[in-house]
Write a structure and sequence with these properties.
Number of strands: 8
CATH superfamily of the largest domain: RimP-like superfamily, N-terminal
CATH topology of the largest domain: GMP Synthetase, Chain A, domain 3
Strand order of the largest sheet: 7-6-5-4-8
Number of helices: 3
Number of domains: 2
Strand content: 35-45%
CATH class of the largest domain: Alpha Beta
Structural class: alpha+beta
Helix content: 10-25%
Shape: globular
Radius of gyration: 17 Å
Distance between the termini: 34 Å
């Protein structure tokens, strides 16, 4: 993602969390996830979308026709970076390991090298996928 886009999001008092390209109902969507200290509002998403959209008209983030969405993370979110794990201490998480196993538990601690799940330390290099989850 362009550094300028990150700066624009920061100037709107939000932070870029992640982005993805997905296809839903036959439509390609470029989705930007943001966080805010005081929570993400519809107005904040709209503000950022209005600023970024003309930039993407000149320099599209993906090939072909797409729809731009700016969104909050939601209750369940993908964890990719150390800062994602650090911000999720206390949350329930499901992890798929590179060697094929999986585990779930509560994030007890996280640092720049890995994450502690229920007293078991896992290096980020051993994690294939991680996502928080909410039990209803």
């Amino acid at each position: 993602m362009n550094e300028n886009i990150e700066k624009i999001i920061l100037s709107c008092e939000a932070e870029l969390y992640d982005f993805e390209t997905v296809t839903e109902n036959g439509r390609k969507i470029f989705r930007i996830y943001i966080t805010c200290d005081d929570g993400v509002t519809l107005e904040k998403c709209e503000e950022i979308s209005k600023i970024i959209s003309p930039i993407f008209d000149l320099n599209p983030p993906v090939q072909g026709q797409y729809f731009l969405e700016v969104s909050s993370l939601g209750i369940e979110r993908t964890l990719k970076l150390p800062k994602h794990f650090k911000a999720s201490v206390g949350s329930k998480v499901k992890i798929k390991l590179n060697e094929g196993g999986s585990l779930q538990g509560v994030i007890m601690d996280a640092n720049d090298d890995g994450v502690e799940i229920d007293e078991q330390f896992i290096n980020y290099s051993n994690i294939n996928k991680a996502k928080t989850y909410f039990e209803w």
